[in-house]
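hi! just following up on the protien thing from before. the input was this:
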Amino acid sequence: MIRISANAYYKDTRPPSVELCLDELFYISGLIDVLLGTKKKWYEKGYSRKQALEHVVFNHKKAEPHVIERWRSRVKKDYPLIIEGVWDGEIDSKICSINYIKNTLRMSKKQIWMSALLVMKWI
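and the predicted 3d structure came back as:
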């Protein structure tokens, strides 16, 4: 078993937007797929496991328009703060999640939490 936790902080002058958040989450999800050699579906966080599996954010392509609209309506309450994330719906021992936090124009933070089984092949 390998557990990976990574945080990326960076300065960004672009205004907070749901599209930017989803684009960055999608980009990181693609990197995770390459790293793990998988093609994961990514789901919204904040629901029970059963409910979350009904709320797909990415399925090997960018977010659908209805996802963008749903996130846009949620973000309006706390704008300019955006705290969103996705997870892969796996069992607890293999779970992978990505969080995105952006507050005004100051600093963005991306958190990546992965727990994956490391399989080594001996030649």
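Confidence is low (pLDDT under 50) at residues 114-123.
The chain has one domain: 2-116.
cheers
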